[in-house]
Specification:
InterPro entries: B-gal_small/dom_5 (IPR004199), Bact_Beta-galactosidase (IPR050347), Beta-gal/glucu_dom_sf (IPR036156), Gal_mutarotase_sf_dom (IPR011013), Galactose-bd-like_sf (IPR008979), GH (IPR017853), GH-type_carb-bd (IPR014718), Glyco_hydro_2 (IPR006101)
Oligomer: single chain
Bound molecules: beta-D-galactopyranose
Number of helices: 11
Organism: Streptomyces longispororuber
GO biological process, one term: lactose catabolic process
Mean pLDDT: 95
CATH architecture of the largest domain: Distorted Sandwich
Strand content: 35-45%
GO molecular function: beta-galactosidase activity; carbohydrate binding
Protein name: Beta-galactosidase
CATH topology of the largest domain: Beta-galactosidase, Chain A, domain 5
Largest sheet: 12 strands, antiparallel
Radius of gyration: 31 Å
């Protein structure tokens, strides 16, 4: 049976061969973006071509914006699946129900459109298959959604009333090659452009610009389909195309993205060139650029915008690159397809190493043991080669692109080898990546995703065995640290490995941005919210940024973990050791500063210095004279001025910071690049509030500022503040995506186990209330129904008349050795009017394995602002190392002060854990009449089990006998 064009395996017909993409030439250009006429049909009616004929009246049709996806413009709905094809797997056939969008655009040529020469019509991205007509004449069809496709249209153009007709099928044989983990979003989602092609215009060209680090010279050769001249005025270069020239240059790197402006001039066109000289090679088993090994501090980036899907405008692209740079990210893998071409211009300009990935994934074939996998079926090879060629030809002139990736999760097969051979032949100047073939037969590096720390260490030590060829290769984690929901945990531990073993050349966090789609009722929608019959829920929200690109705590953590400067402090000698961790750059772009604080606000980069009772404590700061010429890998030791004397119960901290000292194209002056905090003095012991005797009247018992109910042993009020809920033991947290884990992960998934055990429904049995001598002692047994597991918990209250101390002692009973606790602490409820918190401890969200970025200081916030808005609500917002916290009604209103002994994890929220746990979207959460305060002695780590290893053993929270205390006092209004 002959299949229609959208179902046959061919890449398309009628188009021009792929070539280099460029913008800004002096040839005329007519963008065809904007409003197009649109009609949606339920099936791929390939017969009815009437709409493409001249004179067709589409006045009654709807309109859509191009670039865009019709499913995000009121026609049909998006579908999210991770690896499952949302249609029966019967390649290359697709369902009869195949939403098909007919698009029509009428245009006139501008008055000054040149009469001579030809014209090319370019589509930068259409999902998933298109057939095109101009003025009634069929031009051809194509597949390859995130790749450019061009047609020669010169003779068909007329000055006025041109009609461009594009029929787009959601499903095609190409869909089998595009099974990436993301929304399925049909439409013309990238630019459509008409390009004038003068006689003698530039065709394809290939800029070869290498750098020889031994003598500091660059060699430039521009091969051009149409001969011409290449000029680079700054370098005095004026040569013919195809001719090599060697001159002294500054090299291009992600850290110092030095570009030289040039021009390629053929008889008919002048094309601007942005030339970066650099040489990429594997030398002695290491990926090097310009002779130096590089360490990827990378991120995987899908193209995504919460309103426009994969139609991503220039502002979003620039914002992405800037945000990456501002967070110390130096590399991006364009998962899992070539991005909009302008994105790579930004990577060249602002400086990011790029792994440019081909638009290819056949993941859904795993369900059939890879049987029928197109990458191992010769009939599909032309389609694969077409994709490889379109990727390489389009992007080959970008210095930032240093690695080509064949695609993602396709298993193995001869089609991949054919692609690799073609790429190597066409572009020997770059390296090849592909993760899915453990033999590494076609690649220059060994790449894995989500390997755990222990395995990565074995690979670093070269103890991982494996095929001969692989053993000699450098290693990268093309994906790691799954940033779904709260997390990822364990980043520092990976980074330590990367910095220890030279074979480990870093990795790329999965992934950059949550793909939550803006939704009127749900806030951000994820899989299943559009009624999909098959979907993968919120697995699509796994980014370091929220959908609106607000950095998540995961991104802030990553920034710190990969900061290019390491600080070490020796309190004994008062010296600091500063190490340059850049791969290429010295430290001349940074200014360093030291600050001592005495239980007070931190220095640069800190949000607020709240003032109040301790805001006026002494502090001192000054510049740290780090030699600007300190090279990569070098260290310097510097003596610091003596710290100020700490008084009374205050403690002294040293804060070190490195800031941008000259504004750059991505960073403002004083942007904080790296920092570290060190304790200078130990925390003074917390005085034990005791001595006062409990006084009883009826069922009321008073102890210092506390009023208790003697029947329950519960604290009812603190001074004038009536508690909504008395402090009591709490072990439950709303499981994070990482607690829940992914079903395919080998480690135990504790989130589901917690629920089975009933940790979310612990009951508190009162065993005795005893008021004698100086203490009120309340004995309880905390346990879930149907189990014999329990936590014997004793609360011992004492007071010195002003402060009220609660000492908690916990003794596990039964077998707790198979399940860690989510948290261990007390929870209390305060009236909702108490809506503001001050605390001395870590600033932002932190958990045991996500606390690298936590900055020690005095912080202040509205309780509502302490919530991290994960798209699917879950445990969030804990602050680490908190010495004391104050909760007040507004600025300076009355409230409660808590001092921890020892320091504690502090969380406050306007809703309960139970509400948080029940919510599926942010919009399910509304503040109630209680502010819930968690004072935790322990928190379980976060890990990355939503698609990776779980919590490392040292960050687990096992149930063990524990003692901890809090001292409560009344915070008077106005102080
Ligand atoms: C990887 C895959 C990504 C994404 C990720 C989990 O296996 O390459 O596309 O699915 O897992 O979010």
């Amino acid at each position: 049976m002959e299949l229609p064009y959208h179902e046959d395996v061919s890449p398309g017909s009628g188009g021009l061969p792929p070539r280099a993409w460029y913008a800004g030439s002096d040839a005329a250009v007519l963008p065809l973006n904007g409003s197009w006429r649109f009609r949606l049909s339920p099936g791929a009616d390939t017969e009815d071509e009437a709409f493409a004929a001249d004179g067709f009246d589409a006045a009654a049709w709807d309109e859509v914006v191009v670039p865009g996806h019709w499913v995000l413009q009121g026609h049909g709905a998006p579908v999210y699946t991770n690896q499952s094809y949302p249609f029966p797997v019967d390649p290359p056939r697709v369902p009869t129900e195949n939403p098909t969008g007919d698009h029509l655009r009428c245009f006139d040529l501008p008055a000054d459109w040149p009469a001579d020469g030809g014209a090319t019509l370019r589509f930068d991205g259409v999902e998933s298959c298109a057939r095109v007509w101009l003025n009634g004449t069929p031009l051809g069809d194509f597949k390859g959604s995130r790749l450019p496709h061009e047609f020669a249209v010169g003779p068909l153009l007329r000055p006025r009333d041109n009609v461009l007709a594009v029929r787009v099928h959601q499903w095609s044989s190409g869909s089998y090659l595009e099974d990436q983990d993301q929304w399925w979003l049909p439409g013309i989602f990238r630019d459509v452009t008409l390009l004038h092609r003068p006689e003698g215009a530039v065709g394809d060209f290939f800029t070869h610009a290498s750098y020889d680090h031994r003598d500091g010279t660059g060699t430039l050769r521009v091969d051009s389909e149409v001969a011409g001249r290449v000029t680079v005025p700054e370098l005095g270069i004026d040569v013919a195309t195809g001719e090599s020239v060697t001159v002294a240059v500054e090299p291009w790197s992600a850290e110092r993205p030095r570009l030289y402006d040039g021009v390629l001039a053929t008889p008919g066109e002048r094309v601007p060139l942005r030339i970066g000289f650099r040489t990429v090679a594997v030398v002695d088993g290491l990926i090097t650029v310009n002779g130096r090994p590089v360490l990827f501090r990378g991120v995987n980036r899908h193209e995504f915008h919460p309103e426009t899907g994969r139609a991503v405008g220039p502002d979003t692209m620039r914002a992405d690159v800037r945000l990456m740079k501002l967070h110390n990210i130096n590399a991006v893998r364009t998962s899992h397809y070539p991005p909009h071409p302008a994105f790579l211009d930004l990577c060249d300009e602002l400086g990011l190493w790029v792994i440019d990935e081909c638009d290819l994934e056949t993941h859904g074939f795993t369900a059939r043991g890879w049987e029928g996998n197109p990458v191992d079926d010769a009939r599909w090879t032309p389609a694969l080669l077409d994709r490889a060629e379109r990727t390489v030809e389009r992007d080959k002139n970008h210095p930032s692109v240093i690695v080509w990736s064949l695609g993602n999760e396709c298993g193995t097969g001869r089609g991949l080898t054919a692609m690799a051979e073609w790429i190597r032949d066409r572009d020997p100047g770059r390296l090849l990546h592909y993760e899915g073939d453990p033999s590494c037969a076609d690649t220059d590096m060994y790449s894995r995703m989500y390997a755990d720390h222990a395995e990565v260490e074995r690979i670093g030590r070269r103890e991982d065995g494996g095929p001969e060829r692989r053993r000699g290769l450098p290693f990268i984690l093309c994906e790691y640290a799954h940033a779904m929901g709260n997390g990822p945990g364990g980043l520092s531990d990976y980074q330590r490995l990367f910095e220890t073993y030279e074979r480990l050349q870093g990795g790329f966090v999965w992934e950059w941005v949550d793909h939550g789609l803006k939704h009127p009722q749900l806030g951000y929608a994820y899989g299943g919210d559009f009624g999909e019959e098959l979907h993968d829920g919120n697995f699509v929200c796994d980014g370091l940024c929220f959908p609106d690109r607000m950095p998540s705590p995961g991104l802030v953590e990553y920034k710190r973990v990969i900061q290019p400067v390491r600080f070490a402090y020796d309190a004994g000698t008062g010296t600091v050791r500063v190490t340059n961790l850049y791969d290429v750059a010295d430290l001349s772009e940074l200014a360093f500063e030291w600050t001592y604080t005495v239980d007070g606000p931190v220095g640069p980069g800190g949000p607020l210095a709240p003032g109040g009772p301790r805001g006026d404590t002494p502090s001192a700061s000054g510049p740290l004279d780090v030699p600007p010429e300190l090279g990569p890998g070098e260290s310097v030791e510097l003596k610091l001025p003596d710290p100020p004397a700490a008084a009374g119960d205050a403690e002294t901290w040293l804060h070190l910071s490195a800031m941008v000292c000259e504004e750059t194209n991505w960073a403002p002056l004083d942007h904080l690049v790296a920092c570290a905090d060190f304790p200078v003095t130990a925390r003074p012991p917390v005085p034990v509030a005791a001595g006062e005797r409990p006084r009883r009247r009826g069922y009321d018992l008073t102890l210092g500022p506390g009023r208790f109910d003697v029947r329950t042993g519960e604290l009812r009020a603190l001074g004038d503040i009536a508690l909504k809920s008395a402090p009591r033991l709490d072990v439950w947290r709303a499981p994070t995506d990482n607690d829940d884990g992914a079903p395919w992960q080998p480690d135990t998934r504790y989130g589901p186990l917690w629920r089975t055990l009933g940790l979310h429904r612990m009951r508190h049995r009162l065993d005795g209330v005893q008021a004698d001598g100086e203490a009120l002692t309340v004995r309880t047994r905390v346990a879930p129904a149907a189990r014999d597991l329990a936590l014997r918990t004793v609360y011992r209250w004492t007071s010195d008349g002003t402060a009220l101390r609660l000492a908690v002692s916990v003794t596990p009973e039964g077998r707790w050795d198979e399940v860690p606790l989510p948290r261990l602490g007390v929870r209390l409820g305060l009236p909702a009017a108490i809506d503001r918190a001050d605390w001395f401890g870590g600033d932002g969200e932190a958990y045991p394995d996500t606390r690298a970025a936590s900055r020690m200081g005095w912080w202040s916030s509205w309780v509502e602002r302490m919530q991290t808005p994960y798209v699917r609500p879950q445990e969030n917002g804990a602050r680490a190392d908190v010495r004391w916290a104050e909760l007040r009604a507004g600025f300076g209103g009355p409230g409660v002060r808590v001092v921890g002994d020892p320091a504690f994890w502090f969380t406050a929220r306007p809703w309960s854990t139970e509400e948080l746990d029940a919510a599926t979207h942010r919009t399910d959460l509304t503040p109630g009449d209680t502010v819930w305060v968690h004072l935790d002695h322990g928190q379980r780590g976060i890990g990355s089990q939503s698609c990776g290893p779980g919590v490392l053993p040292r960050y687990e929270l096992w149930a063990e006998p524990a003692e901890f205390a809090f001292t409560f006092s009344v915070a008077e209004a106005g102080r």
